[in-house]
Amino acid sequence: MSNNSEKNFIFHVQNFGSRNDTVFCGVFDGHGPLGHMVAKRVRDVLPLKLTDDWKCGESREFSASSPGNSASEHSTASPKEEIRDSTKFEEKDEHSQNLKMLKNSMLKAFTNMDKELKQQPGIDCFSSGSTAVTLIKQGQELVIGHVGDSRAVLGTRDKNNSLTAVQLTVDLKPNLPSEAERIRQCSGRVFALRTEPDVLRIWLPNDDSPGLAMSRAFGDFCLKDFGLISVPEISCWRVTDRDEFVILASDGVWDVLSNKEVVDIVASAPARSSAASCLVQSAVKAWRLKYPTSRIDDCAAVCLFLDAEASNISSIRTRSSNATNAGCYEQESTGGEGPNGNRPDPSPADNHPTTTSP
Asked: What's the top EC group for this one (predicted)?
């Protein structure tokens, strides 16, 4: 894994795609010699691919509903049927269709992003790649798409009003039986080194390299014929008044802090704008305590607060390069703008997470 000081990137924007009720957040953690370039490219391009797909979808809907469209002319429903159906089922159907659209858009964006990386002349992605954990909040719906071991966790209140942690994603690593089976069926090998017996890695069929510790990622094209994929796992959650915030973070945070510890740190931050900073500082301290002779893994975090207050996003990443010095912290804007201040504008259900893995 690259020791580059800027291998992880964060992104957040409110009014995403020129939609007032929509927020997009993401954490992208690079690995390999050019992992920092891969992560940056994914951060910059993936949101645009999402909004481009939304615009194409809106154009298709407008075309389908235009006068003279065959579907409009050949409707077979009677007026009574239309009234009866619209009163009870229209909202539910619209809700289901919107969720389906968001999930399909995310799947398509991830797929096209990986294709673009393969054709990118300025970035050699053969043995470099990036994780991604991305979240779209539209109204009360959360749609999370991810590859790799960056994670999303919800801070919510239980029936006793105690703050609890709900993990919204599954770390996509070779230790998952279904992931390992896919890799082996594609002739890839899965095993752990003697020096770290608890860490399963992906290896080429006839070469003890590269030893990637995740089963899905952008880039890493040396392994794409041997079981590594960039297909995201997509999870959905309907927000209730018990849900307080969502944390997206790279594995540098989760490797040293439990989900509950992370939720408690964010909840106890003195201000929302400093929540991500408090979290990353706590992770760095935990690294120093638990692994004093090891290099501190770079950490990135985004905290999205789920109520209606204006300043509801906090994010930060570390820029570190050695075991004893965590370097500096780079605070991203908390008002909802994207990297470098750019705003991308290419412009009661069961409250349990549902997961699809296309």
From this structure: hydrolase
Find out whether 244 and 267 touch, Cβ atoms under 8 Å. yes
- Model confidence at 80, pLDDT cuts 50, 70, 90, reads very low
* Residue 54 near residue 242, CB atoms below 8 Å: no
Report pLDDT for 331.
46
User: Partners of 136 in the beta sheet?
Assistant: 24, 143
Residue 22 near residue 15, CB atoms below 8 Å = yes
The whole-angstrom separation of Cα 243 and Cα 262 is: 15
Helices (H), 227-338: 251-254, 259-267, 275-290
Tokens standing for residue 28: 């992208």
Whether 47 shows a pLDDT value over 60: the answer reads yes
Average pLDDT over residues 39-58: 89
Distance, CA of 68 to CA of 70 (rounded, Å) = 6
Please report the sign of the dihedral spanned by the C-alpha atoms of residue 106, residue 109, residue 111, residue 113. negative
Find residue 30's DSSP bridge partners: 130
Q: Domain ranges for the chain, please list them.
A: 8-65+81-171+229-356
- Judge whether 145 and 248 are in contact, CB under 8 Å: no
Say whether the peptide bond before residue 121 is cis (omega within 30 degrees of 0): no
pLDDT tens digits for range 99-151: 999 999 999 999 999 999 999 888 999 999 999 999 999 999 999 999 999 99
**pTM score:** 0.81
Residues whose CB falls within 8 Å of the CB of residue 170, separated by 6 or more in sequence, listed in order: 176, 233, 355
Reference 331, options 117, 10, 37; nearest CA is 10
- Amino acid 108 reads K
Architecture of the 8-65+81-171+229-356 domain: 4-Layer Sandwich (3.60)
SS (H, E, C) 137-190: EECCEEEEEEECCCEEEEEEECCCCCEEEEECCCCCCCCCHHHHHHHHHCCCEE
